[in-house]
Amino acid sequence: MKKLFQIIFVMFFTAISANAEALTGGVSTVGLGNKVVDANTNAPIAGAQISLPKQKFSTKSDKNGNFNLDANFNGDTIMSVQKDGYKPFSLTINEQIVAKPMILGIQKSTGREVMIESAMLHLGDNNFSKGSANCGEFKLKAIGPFYTKTFKMSANTLSLTNFLVIGSIIGIDTAMARSMGQNSIKNSFSSPPEVYFNGTKIAEIQLNGDNQKIKLPNGLIRADQINEVTIQTGRNLTQHAYVDYDDIELMNLSIQSE
Ligand SMILES: [Ca+2]
What we know:
16 strands; Jelly Rolls; 258 residues; 5-stranded antiparallel beta sheet; Immunoglobulin-like; mainly beta; single chain; binds calcium ion
């Protein structure tokens, strides 16, 4: 009986100290106490590059995987994490998200990813409403209404399922994005961005978000040859006096084969 009490006593105190640790971890100022771990093993990852491209902020995780975000921003912005041997990772963050410590699980590369673009891209015309999804973050100059890139795909992709993966996308002002509360525009909306693969439209992107996977029809793949992907932003469907392209930003475009 005495032994049982001892065990309960020990368990009780272990629980309290674990709780205390969780609480001190939770009390932090904005952007502190974040960690990068391997998504499968939970092992901390040292030397990962964490960046907020819009804020021109960049830092590396320490030997325990820890990092702080020492940057000011308003509203949604894209955070990217890069580490050799791991898949590109990005996350749309805001003040509410960074108010608590973030644990970011990144996945080992399978060796079957083709990085198309790791830079932040701004499509549109730099003309946007203040209520637009994530408008506070548009400081990059628009490269125009579309982005296009060519890349090679090997013959063995034909026996796999292939995806265009968009790490993060913000600023889409479609009717659906508006109905989901992703922007605060009352009187207008845009057509969705369109995705073309080797000249054929394969998708429309209705919503903002992270890790959007668009299947590439294998019948359209040119094996061992040059392939081409194009992303065209939408147009404001309520502006008829002139063409107003929807201003959007996206980051980390890759082809992933499974
Ligand atoms: Ca515009």
